[in-house]
Amino acid sequence: MNVMQRALAGLGLAILALTPASAADPSKILYYRNPMGLSDISKVPKKDQMGMDYIPVHEGEDGSSTVKISLDRVQRSGVRTELAQMQRIARVVRAPGIAKPDERTLRIVSLRSDGFIEKLYVNETGAHITAGQPLFRVYSPQAVSAQVDFRTASVAGRGPRDDASAVQRLKNLDVPPAVIDKMREGGQPILSFDWPAPASGYVMEKSVIEGQMAKAGEALFKIAGLDPVWIIADVPEQEFGLVRTGATARIHFLALPGKVFEGRVTFILHELDARTRTAKVRIELPNPGHAISHEMFADVEIDAGSGDADRLVVPASAVIDSGSRQVVIVDRGEGLFEPRAVKLGMRGDGLVEIIDGLKAGESVVVTANFLIDAESNLKAALQAFTAEPGQPPKAEAKP
């Protein structure tokens, strides 16, 4: 037995369960082939040396890659088919991410004139504050001088213009509105007053100590909100082009197992990191209960196919991909199966797009398709092996 005979014999054993020894079929039987894949054929039914029946080859099967399998064997072998159909492929882009503060909620608390911090009400980093809540009590000589000027202009009755000028000076020094309202009511200059929080959020940084002198423009507090938060995902370069602004995203946090958060892509940075070859994608995520904290690690899943049109798709298991060719097994009915070369497109969500070679509504095999493909290849190999010398074979074996 030579090398080809041994190879064919092995393949014959693999598909023996698919092909019945004596299939009852109304079509004409042309000849009987060796069940072990050897080159000898017979015009009449016979058995080989091991007692196995020769396999009948029916009219219409010879010279083509189409194979016929009895319906009983199809059911027992677990062959299952599905229709090729038009459908949207929801491809998912997965990337690591990290929670960051929404930059639109960031606030810096600073004075517009030199002052002295007499009392510090918020004295710890991480404290939650609300807009208008007193942060500290401050004495500012420039703010007191501006109040005196306002009081003088009001008492002297210099007119609305001078009064407006004095009020504007107080506003330029960022004196709280409550202090300005008391001055308008005729009150005396306030030597020290409470400084309100400009927004609600958490104290990210605190750079002030009770009793210290604060310079004009010096950052005393940095405040950031926790609703919403930003998730910055590092999307690989090869999938960067699939992500679109507005795409939905699902977020899984390592610190919050079992919980899934949903957000949307709001911005894609048009520059890749030269070291990691990733692109920064920003996802805005609601955080009403403040369960998500800044710098949390996350697993991000972005729906990259949400805006795509329908495509002709089949289940991924229907495709036999050898690298050099891609084949699906088309069920033509009555036990006839046809291996057909196809051209593939996008993949995702367990589906594969078929660009060429298949039509919508055709039925393809999704399980046991490798066995049917092996039967088809063996048939073509036998035809090439048994061809008369000097005559071309009726069908070429597929690579």
Features:
399 residues, alpha+beta, OB fold (Dihydrolipoamide Acetyltransferase, E2P), six-stranded antiparallel barrel, 27 strands, 19% helix, disordered C terminus
In short:
This protein is an alpha+beta fold and 399 residues long.
Question: Can you offer a commentary on this structure?
Answer:
- This protein is α+β, with helices and mostly antiparallel strands.
- Among the domains are: 93-103 and 226-303, Efflux pump adaptor protein, beta barrel domain (Elongation Factor Tu (Ef-tu), domain 3, Beta Barrel), CATH 2.40.30.170; 112-223, OB fold (Dihydrolipoamide Acetyltransferase, E2P), CATH 2.40.50.100.
- It is 19% helix and 36% strand.
- It is built from seven helices and 27 strands.
- The protein has helices at 3-15, 71-76, 141-156, 160-172, 177-184, 237-240, 369-385, and strands at residues 29-33, 41-42, 55-58, 67-68, 80-83, 85-87, 92-101, 107-109, 115-120, 128-129, 134-139, 192-196, 201-206, 213-214, 221-224, 229-236, 248-253, 261-272, 278-285, 297-303, 311-315, 319-321, 326-333, 336-341, 343-348, 351-356, 363-367.
- The strands form seven sheets. The chain has a six-stranded antiparallel β-barrel with strand order 7-16-19-18-17-20. The chain has a four-stranded antiparallel sheet with strand order 4-24-23-22, with helices on one face.
- A hairpin with a 7-residue loop joins strand 17 and strand 18 (261-272).
- The two termini are 22 Å apart.
